[in-house]
Amino acid sequence: MRGIGMMPNDIPEWKKRAFGGNKASYGKKTQLSILEQRESLPIYKLKEQLIQILIVIGETGSGKTTQITQYLAEAGYTTRGKIGCTQPRRVAAMSVAKRVSEEYGCCLGQEVDAFLY
What Gene Ontology cellular-component terms does the record carry (predicted)? Predict the structure, then answer.
């Protein structure tokens, strides 16, 4: 919820309302299962609202890239086609595809893949 150098008073009101106050909540670095890790991300609370949004802005590590694509798939958006997620760098694209395939429970190259251009 907070960027580098931001104080609690600097947090925009919409973030305070969405995440329940001034206290930041980030995924914990523990031995949690993948499901527990997903559910611990700040973006998880907004899952139902997010699948209706076109543009999402969030802090690094909040789950934008790895979670929203899965939320859309779980909501049935893949029945008519594919969901694309862009990454500016080859390494990032491969890392994201690998992570999402692990979370989604499939082998990379099946339901989840990376196309590099």
Answer: catalytic step 2 spliceosome
